[in-house]
Each structure stands twice: as C-alpha cells, then as structure tokens.
C-alpha cells in the first residue's frame, strides 16, 4: 500500500496471491488410497470417489474400486452417485437465490390464505400449519413431519408431490408449534422444492440447473431415476445390504431433499 502500512497476503484476492494449486504428493496420494480401501472394506462398499478443491479449483479427484461389479467397470471421477441429503443445502441455495431476487422473504408463510402453496380440497388446515414460514422449513423447525418411521417421503410412493402434500396434511398433524422444536424433516425440504417451482415458474430441476448449477460450472447433475432401468449415463450401480433394495424407492419424488445425482467434483464446485 502507498501509505506504508503492512499488507497481509490473506487480504489479497486469491488470484493475486501467486500460489500454485497444491497437488498431493505421492506419499499423500498413497495415504488417501489406504483410507479409501479401509473404508470400502469396513462398510462393504464396492467403490467410491473423492474430490478436493482449493480456492475454487479442483486440486485432487479420483475413484476407487468398482462402479459396476458385474461388468468390472472401474470407478472414475466422472461417475455419478445419488447424493441423498446433500440435496438439502443445494435447495437452500436455490431458496436464497430467490430471496436475493426479492421474490421471497424468510418470514413468508407456506400455507393458508396468503401462503406460498395452496392445498386443494382442504377448507380448513390442521392446527398450526398456517403458522409455518419459509424460515421454519429451512431450519427444520416446522413442528412435525420428521425423519422417523412415519416420514411422509417414504409413504404413498405412488402419489405425486401435490397429492402427497395433501394427504400428509390430513393424516399427520404437527407435533409442536412451528418454531418451538427442531426435528430433521425431509418433507419440509420437499415443500421448499415446491416453493421454488411456484415462485420461479419453472420446474424445481430446471430452476436449480439454470440458477445454481450452471453458474457454478456444473453441467451433468440430474434428478435420479428410481429403477435400474432408469440408470443415467455414468451412474454407478447400487448394491443393497441386509435385504435392502436401492431400486425400490421413489427417489425422483425426493428431488429437493434427496434426489440429485452428482460427482464429488460437482459438489465441491458448488
């Protein structure tokens, strides 16, 4: 600085610091591989993928094991995985994009006369439902619909979003007043996906692709299919344990709370 004061390196923009993108040494790479192998053996995982970023750039990315055991297809950084609840912070970013644009406010109510979402066929909403705000959904404090044995997102797999919301409001009353209790809620983030659709006038996936993923340089993320025949290009094969069937869920309906396919590189870019 011209005034003679000390200029600390940390205050400079990343591009001005003159630091090269760090790459792991051969020894570090070997240690990463050892950790991955140990994890796969302990949890009986056929394959995994990992990526690290440094100041907005991919510093390390690789795959371990197999993406498809039957075809002996080795894992690569390009393979897509179901990312489950990592979808939630992505959806929250989408909501805050709309808040930045002045189209939403955290205190906006979700249901009721002036609510963001309308429920057909319900003249009177259950107690407390009209008090739920956008902030409550974002922070898992809406008062009910938690991720337990009665999680709405794992019931009525044949229903679409609109039908599921209506039947959930009828069948599952809130357990607490909105804002008074924390309970992790997949259904709450399903509702946020519908808020994005109503507010943006796009499908949830289209809005996220246009306004969140594309600006991050992410092109290949998609909403997952449900069955093996729905498998996307470069998507891994899933193997159930203890009688589980990973292809017996309505993953596509989980879009905003758990339906995305992505690579580790996609996640760190975002």
What is the H/E order?
Answer: HEEEEHHHHHEHEH
Question: Uncertain segments of ≥5 residues (pLDDT<50)?
Answer: 1-9, 11-17
Rough outline = globular
Mean pLDDT: 92
Going across the biggest sheet, name each strand in turn.
Answer: 1-2-3
Query: If you compute it from the alpha carbons, what radius of gyration comes out, rounded to the nearest whole angstrom?
Result: 22 Å
Taking the alpha carbons of the first and last residues, their distance comes to 34 Å
- DSSP helix fraction: 25-40%
| Total beta strands | 6
Structural class: alpha+beta
Share of residues in strands: 5-15%
Give me the number of helical elements.
8
Q: What can be said about the biggest beta sheet?
A: 3 strands, antiparallel
Description:
The chain is an alpha+beta fold and 270 residues long. The chain has eight helices and six strands, in the order H-E-E-E-E-H-H-H-H-H-E-H-E-H. The strands form two sheets. A three-stranded antiparallel sheet has the order 1-2-3. Helix 2 runs parallel beside helix 5 and helix 2 packs across helix 6. The radius of gyration is 22 Å and the shape is globular. The two termini are 34 Å apart. The model is unreliable at 1-9 and 11-17 (pLDDT under 50).
């Amino acid at each position: 600085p011209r005034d003679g004061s000390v200029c600390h390196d940390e205050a400079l923009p990343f591009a001005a610091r003159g630091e090269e993108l760090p790459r792991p040494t051969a020894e570090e790479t070997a240690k990463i591989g050892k950790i991955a192998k140990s994890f796969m053996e302990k949890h009986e995982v056929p394959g995994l993928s990992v990526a690290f970023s440094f100041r907005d750039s991919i510093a390390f990315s690789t795959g371990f094991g197999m993406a498809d055991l039957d075809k002996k297809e080795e894992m690569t950084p390009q393979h897509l995985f179901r990312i489950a609840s990592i979808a939630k912070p992505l959806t929250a970013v989408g909501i805050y994009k709309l808040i930045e644009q002045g189209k939403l406010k955290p205190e906006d109510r979700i249901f009721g006369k002036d609510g963001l979402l309308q429920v057909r066929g319900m003249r009177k909403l259950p107690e407390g439902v009209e008090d739920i705000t956008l902030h409550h959904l974002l922070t898992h404090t809406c008062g009910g619909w938690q991720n337990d044995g009665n999680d709405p997102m794992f019931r009525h797999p044949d229903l679409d979003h609109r039908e599921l919301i209506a039947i959930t409001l009828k069948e599952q009353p809130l357990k607490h007043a909105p804002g008074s209790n924390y309970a992790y809620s997949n259904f709450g983030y399903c509702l946020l996906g519908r808020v994005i659709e109503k507010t943006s006038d796009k499908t949830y996936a289209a809005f996220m692709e246009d306004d969140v993923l594309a600006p991050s340089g992410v092109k290949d993320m998609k909403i997952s299919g449900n069955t093996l025949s729905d498998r996307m290009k470069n998507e891994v094969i899933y193997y159930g344990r203890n009688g589980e069937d990973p292809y017996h869920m309505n993953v596509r309906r989980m879009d905003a709370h758990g339906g995305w396919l992505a690579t580790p590189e996609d996640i760190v870019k975002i």
